[in-house]
Amino acid sequence: MSDFIEDKWKKVERSFYSLYGLGVKPSISNPSLIVFLFKQYCQSIFRHVMDNIRIPCSMLKEFDSRQSMIIKRMIGLKKFTHTTPLNEALNLESNN
User: In terms of C-beta density within 10 A (0-12 exposed, 13-18 middle, 19 or more buried), how is residue 56 classed?
Assistant: First the structure.
């Protein structure tokens, strides 16, 4: 089950970086646009089928931190930027 979940998350990461072709590049694009595309395109990949599977809390926390790292990297922030204010400002929901 954990392999299935990990494969789903890798698809999310690949799909997010495939947005480069649309002109969504680090430090250039509007953060609101980046988060909108992430919610509509990437999170839907992860949440499809996953809503019916019980995922351990430890894995959810790991996916939240990985999601934050993707968003920070795409916006151009340092990896040590606090996540909670960022998620609130961008209105980004967590996987929990």
Answer: exposed
Structure tokens at 7: 């494969």
78 SS3 class:
coil
Assess whether pLDDT exceeds 60 at residue 17.
Answer: yes
Q: Is 16 helix (H, G, I), strand (E, B) or coil?
A: helix
CA dist 75 and 46 (Å) reads 21
Q: What residue type is assigned to position 16 of the chain? A: F
Confirm whether pTM is higher than 0.70: no
Query: Residue 19: which pLDDT band, with cuts at 50, 70 and 90?
Result: confident
Question: Does 96 score more than 60 pLDDT?
Answer: no
Q: CB neighbours of 22 closer than 8 A, spacing ≥ 6?
A: 37
**Cα Rg of the chain, angstroms:** 13
Residue 48 CB contacts under 8 Å (≥ 6 apart), including other chains? none
